[in-house]
Amino acid sequence: MYWPYPIGEQVSHWGPVTSTVNFCEQDYYVTPYIAEFINTLSNFLYIVLAAYGISKSPSRDKVVLWSYGLMGFVGVGSTLFHGSLKFSTQMMDELGMVYATATALYSILTIDLRQWSRWLAMFLFTSMAMLTVVHCNATEPSIQRLCFTTMIYGTFIRCYMLIKRVKDERVRKEMKTIAKVGTGFYITGTLIWMFDEMRCQDLKNIRDVVGLPWGLVFEAHGWWHVLTAVGVYCYLVFVEYLRLALYSTHPLSTMRVAWRLNFFPHLELISNDPRKRI
């Protein structure tokens, strides 16, 4: 089974590209309605896992639910961006990543700073508003990437410090497992994205040789979406568990981690009868 990639510029239903960045995937080679086919479809996992996280959340913690919701928003924004390559949807994608990370950072910081939660929310909201104005008027995304990376590292370090305070050995072990799985997926996805940027022409050459549909496997940025979606989802489950352990008064003895397909954890409330699940 082999179909060659189309040659030359393809017809676009959405008009000319206006985004300031474009990725390694060929534009509009499958349909005139989707600019980057795999980069667009791969974002649906963000949306699916966000909905799954909301539906499975036992704590119904508003901050956690907002975090899941913004994860889904990232998926929607990235889908629209890669599907159209318009500047407006690029802003939705890039700023959505920062908004979601800021919410996750807030959920971690307020474990110890609950009395300052309103001021912290105002500070982060103001910072995100300023970043939005600056980024929308910037010619390249360096400031957005700097803020995003700084918050990622900040949340990672803070989580590492907080998990040491969890006294229940079983709970701490389950948290570490979720964290390791999520971190592994996220780092692998990031490395693939970096490889995609550095070796784009090599990947294009491979795709030209193998043709369609096999060339779709070598759309590395799409793998970044899939792997980081799992990594981010695991992180949000980890944060919810951490908030239950250190922020909530809910007894952890009635809580456990359940896994779906060995990659997708969720928290599960259990009754005294082990045959029943709440």
Features:
278 residues; single chain; two-stranded antiparallel ribbon; globular; disordered C terminus; 9 helices
Detail the topology: elements first, then pairings:
Layout lengths: L36 H5 L2 H13 L5 H23 L2 H23 L7 H20 L5 H22 L5 H30 L1 H11 L9 H27 L8 E6 L3 E6 L9
Antiparallel strand pairs: 1-2
Helix/strand order:
HHHHHHHHHEE
Q: Please tally the helical runs, counting DSSP H or I stretches of 4 or more residues.
A: 9
Largest sheet entry: 2 strands, antiparallel
Mean pLDDT score, rounded? Answer: 91
Strand content: under 5%
Rg, please?
20 Å
Question: How are the strands of the largest sheet arranged?
Answer: 1-2
Provide the structure class.
Answer: mainly alpha
Tell me the number of strands: 2
Q: Can you tell me the overall shape?
A: globular
Low-confidence segments, ≥5 residues, pLDDT <50? 272-278
Oligomer: single chain
The residue fraction in helices comes out at 55-70%
Span between termini: 49 Å
Structural notes for this entry:
With 278 residues, the protein is mainly alpha-helical. 63% of the residues lie in helices and 4% in strands. The chain is built from nine helices and two strands, in the order αααααααααββ. The chain has helices at 37-41, 44-56, 62-84, 87-109, 117-136, 142-163, 169-198, 200-210, 220-246; strands at 255-260, 264-269. It has a two-stranded antiparallel ribbon. Strand 1 (255-260) and strand 2 form a beta hairpin. Helix 4 (87-109) runs antiparallel to helix 5 and helix 4 packs parallel to helix 6 (142-163).
Give a short overview.
This protein has 278 residues and is mostly helical. Helix content is 63%, strand content 4%. It has a two-stranded antiparallel ribbon with strand order 1-2.
